[in-house]
Amino acid sequence: MQTKKDQWSTKLGFILSSAGAAIGLGAIWKFPYMTGMNGGGAFFLLFIAFTIIIGLPILIAEFIIGRGAEKEAVSAYKKLAPKSLWSIIGKWGVAGAFLLMSFYSVVGGWVLTYSGLSIPGMIIRDGANYPELFASITGNPMITILAHGLFILINVIVISYGIKDGIEKSSKILMPLLFVFFIILVIRAVTFEGAMEGIQFFLQPDFSKLNAENVLYALGQSFFSLAVGISVMVTYSSYLKKDVSLPMSAGSVSIMNIFVSLLAGLAIFPVVFAFGLEPAEGPGLLFIVLPEAFAQMPFGEIFLSLFLLLFLFAVLTSSFSMLEIITSAFTEKKERSRKKVAAIAGVVVFIAGIPAALSSSNLADFKIFGLTIFDATDFLVSNIMLPGGCLLIALFIGFKMDKTLIRQEFFYGNRLSPGIYQVWFQLMRWIVPITIIIVFLGSLGIL
């Protein structure tokens, strides 16, 4: 049984921390450029559908597994299905979190660099070429590796202090502030001349632009932005008290995730079209568009600094969850020091992330199936490991985990009708796994 010290102190703290784990780079950095590269409004509509029909049920399932076992990801499956191969789901999750963290921390380093440059006013300048600025930062090996390392060091320090004192306290304060600043940015973005074209691109679906690969990317994006498939939420919910409704908490996280994705699109695409930028710019889209937008505002440099610092926090809350699942997997036995394990994990992730950090400089010409190391790692995690993990979790809930325990965890802290439970359970048993298999086979050209 978890001790009180190891638990979230409040329901709000858990929801905001889970939302922070989910939102981060998925909704704010990756969603806009993936939408820009994959059909605009049609991609967004698919993303919403997958988030509600597939992502939300899996998020509930991960919450149920974690709190039902009261163990971190690897130990949870061992406890719920002892002496079986199902424990591979937890190991799959730790491996996925490790790979994800290895390139995620590189982007975190970009955010850290931009945050540092914005404070003394070194980003917004007359005649500044923002695409060129981004290329000069990501193309500098010294900057990218140092920022990558510093970002991981911050993660190690916070994770060393644990759940309540490390992650929860900061999430309660800074997550709401991020929403406020995002809304300010959206209000300014939609008032630019030519902004309506960007809004139409983002909100008006054109399904002729979609293909099987785009559909796979939309499914992967829904998993990436909710942080499901690598059992991060299994670990988080293992620290949760029984009086908190798991379906309601998952619903809150999913709604916040869709809302932030909507805000991100409304903040980015009006600026993209107003200034004649390219919506399919790729990973650098956010870092090019943000300075353009804030440069047109009164006190733009100050607002840019504040927004980047809040964005940095959102990125950190997501990375906290990744390092937490790795750390907790090796601290289940009480004799192991959390601080020591977090430090070792941080060093290993730093080393593993160096090739991704050099993907825009020294290793730019090194390709894996035509992709840079950064892009190849992103593709592997987002489009193979996350869907694969979600498929295994769906099968575990639908056909292996004790049904009485599932029902108990589903109904703790709420008065939802049995019909809602049945809909969710049948989704997990049939619709979720079949949909994942069909989308994945379709992307391979098999269907």
Automatic annotation (TrEMBL):
Q: Specify whether NADP is a keyword of the entry.
A: no
Q: Give the GO molecular function terms.
A: symporter activity
- Any idea which UniProt keywords this protein has? Membrane, Symport, Transmembrane, Transmembrane helix, Transport
SUPFAM superfamilies according to UniProt: SNF-like
What CDD domains does UniProt report for this protein, alphabetically? Answer: SLC6sbd_Tyt1-Like
| Membrane topology reported for the UniProt record | Multi-pass membrane protein
Any one GO CC term of this protein is:
membrane
Q: Which PROSITE patterns match?
A: NA_NEUROTRAN_SYMP_1, NA_NEUROTRAN_SYMP_3
Q: What is this protein called?
A: Transporter
Organism of derivation = Virgibacillus profundi
